[in-house]
Write a structure and sequence with these properties.
Layout (H helix, E strand, L loop, with lengths): L3 H15 L4 E6 L5 E2 L3 H8 L4 E7 L2 E6 L3 E6 L4 E6 L5 H5 L1 E7 L4 E6 L5 E6 H9 L12 H8 L6 H5 L10 H10 L13 H20 L40 E3 L7 E3 L6
Parallel strand pairs: 2-9
Antiparallel strand pairs: 1-7, 3-4, 4-5, 5-9, 6-8, 7-8, 10-11
């Protein structure tokens, strides 16, 4: 599932490639991905609009339009925003759910094999209300160790689950929660409220570092994630623990443990290094 580094990569690609382009046509082949708008209304409100900028909030890709509307895409497990200059593979086009014809002849597809992601068209004020429900951005300078310590204080849930709660910290999912907690030497099952202020500072540094590094390598691809040009992310080769259950811990050499007991998602940890 695309997390912060993957959606940040997509948003940056779209902003670089599509800013200033005008939408001249809209085709909806799978309307079940739409939210807050019907196909005919989507086509009416998008046709003629110019793309002002593309950016990210949490795990959402947001495309601001000259009309004041925002096209908001949540890729979830198999969704991707792909720019087609005429050379897209037929199997990719096969799973296109929404296609935007652009003024320079290219097409922006929202491709989603399992159709678990969503495409919404909302006003700027409506998006502001949605964004207000999301937590702090971990790459925002306001996200300090002290801030994280306050967010964790008194919480009885497992620290990994709290990090993945989008209402608390936005953009972190299973992959990067695993990686950050290993880097910070914190047991993912520990109660969040038992993470002390100094540990919160270390954890904040680990979160920022792993997210920044992954963005630099254009995200993590296991199966479905692709950037806007259809390329795979390269950070998978640099994951220390996620996907490595049963392998030696990179720090101590003991075997990494894989479990679904903490939050129902795969958690990989080193019982020796993480306390």
């Amino acid at each position: 599932m695309p997390e912060l580094p993957e959606t940040e990569t997509i948003a940056r690609d779209l902003d670089r490639e599509l800013a200033g382009q005008r939408i001249v046509g809209v085709r909806v082949t799978r309307p079940d991905v739409l939210r807050e708008v019907r196909p005919a209304e989507l086509a009416r409100r998008l046709t003629g609009a110019a793309i002002v900028r593309s950016w990210r909030r949490a795990k959402l890709v947001v495309i601001d339009l000259s009309t004041g509307d925002c096209l908001v895409v949540q890729p979830r497990f198999t969704g991707a925003l792909l720019i087609d200059a005429g050379n897209m593979a037929p199997e990719e086009r096969r799973y296109s759910t929404v296609a935007l014809d652009l003024s320079d002849g290219r097409v922006l597809h929202y491709r989603d094999i399992r159709r678990l992601g969503t495409v919404a068209l909302v006003t700027a004020s409506r998006f502001a209300a949605i964004a207000k429900l999301l937590g702090v951005e971990p790459l925002d300078p306001a996200f300090t160790g002290e801030h994280l310590s306050v967010l964790l204080r008194g919480r009885r849930q497992a620290i990994k689950k709290v990090l993945m709660d989008q209402r608390i910290v936005a953009g972190i999912g299973n992959i990067y929660a695993n990686e950050a907690l290993w880097r910070a030497a914190i047991d993912p099952s520990r109660e969040a409220g038992h993470v002390g202020p100094s540990e919160a500072g270390v954890l904040r540094e680990a979160i920022v570092a792993v997210l920044t590094e992954s963005i630099a390598h254009r995200g993590t691809s296991f199966r479905d994630y692709r950037d806007a040009s259809g390329a795979r992310g390269g950070f998978v080769e640099r994951l220390a623990v996620y996907g490595h259950a049963g392998d030696p811990c990179p720090a101590c050499g003991r075997r990494l443990i894989g479990t679904h007991a903490i939050d129902g998602r795969m958690t990989v940890l080193c019982a020796h290094c993480q306390r």
